[in-house]
Predict the structure.
Amino acid sequence: MTDKNRNTRIVIIGWNERAKKLTEILASISPVKIYIIDNSLHELPFTTEEVVHIKGNSMHDSVLQEAGIKQTGIVFITADMHSTEHDSDARSIISLLAIKTLNPSAFTVVEILSESNINKAKRAGAGEVIYTSKIFARSVISSISEKLA
């Protein structure tokens, strides 16, 4: 598979508002095939030719292989907002390890909820770590600063 084809296949793990918005943006900016791995949905709330839903657990190699993880250039792992921060981060990091084992060259972006797990995600091979609490705090501080100025 060429690098161009590898970069047109994107895997998003987890379905939530962030994953939905990311899917909408990615589908609108370039010709991509998006595979969404999520265990909570029976089916996506929409259907398109560019977006494929795979019901399953992203910690399992067989589910990742069904999504074509070996041919994927970019993977986004979103936090599971239905579990504790610790459990969500643990699942994200285990999924990351499985992905990097099957496709070490995939660029991975991982959403982490607990600051203590940022370095663990980096050691597991995350190309980028998004610490949601820090982004939220910056947004609130920015809003408050504008009101106080």
